[in-house]
Write a structure and sequence with these properties.
Length: about 240
């Protein structure tokens, strides 16, 4: 009997190890904020890379006027040392980011996280988010609604051996004017920087106000094929109101 118990314990331990090995890599999201004029939005993603065990930290600085990266960004740091700490990778990325926009300015103008759904949330619609853009009750702003559609891009040459590949389309729906739809982004192809993605979900909506509501950022979680399981990374679509 004792032998059987030990055998069962060993099997459970092996099963737990296999589950852990296939955990993949889900990047943490840190919303850094906006510049004081609301013209730039910044966020960070960080974690430990599956397979290698190397810590990484990536910072993205986006010009809201045309939804493009600022010159010299994104900032991407990976410490190719299993003994390196995540804190060290984040510090390097932050120090490099100071030359773009100071951390103090971003912190002072963080904006409002009007909606947030982590990738572990199973009870919400991953393709739709509707928010009151500011914590004012009764609301003085019309609701902000965003909808996401996945677009098949199985013709992506570098990803053809992996299975299903998707791009995305993001829409903003007006609460007034009969629900008028605005196209914010539509993939015509998959950029190299996004790897081989197979799924997306709306993760957060961040808003910014001066005298009135003036800008937003939609944070989108990107599910990719990883080394040990699915990996999640973050991208953002920004705009003016």
């Amino acid at each position: 009997m004792r032998t059987l118990v030990l055998f069962a314990v060993c099997l459970l331990a092996q099963f737990a190890t296999l589950v852990a090995v296939r955990a993949g890599d889900v990047a943490e999201l840190e919303i850094l904020g906006f510049t004081k004029d609301g013209g730039v939005f910044a966020f960070e993603e960080y974690g430990v890379q599956d397979g290698s065990g190397f810590p990484y930290a990536n910072r993205y600085y986006i010009d809201i006027n045309d939804d493009t990266f600022l010159k010299g960004t994104p900032i991407k740091v990976r410490l190719d040392d299993e003994n390196a700490t995540l804190e060290a990778a984040r510090l390097q990325a932050r120090q490099k980011g100071e030359a773009i926009v100071s951390q103090a300015e971003l912190t002072a103008n963080r904006g409002i996280t009007a909606g947030f759904n982590p990738v572990t949330e199973l009870s919400v619609d991953p393709f739709r988010m509707v928010v009151n853009p500011r914590p004012i009750f009764s609301p003085v702003d019309p609701p902000l609604e965003f909808r996401l559609d996945e677009i098949a891009r199985n013709d992506t040459e570098r990803c053809q051996s992996l299975g299903e590949i998707n791009g995305f389309r993001l829409l903003r729906i007006e609460a007034k004017d009969g629900g008028q739809t605005h196209l914010l982004h539509e993939d015509k192809s998959i950029p190299q920087s996004r790897g081989c993605p197979n799924g997306y979900q709306i993760g957060a909506v961040q808003t910014f106000s001066l005298d009135s509501l003036s800008a937003y950022a939609v944070l989108i979680a990107v599910r990719q094929y990883g080394f040990e399981g699915p990996d999640f990374r973050w991208i953002a679509v920004t705009g003016r109101l």
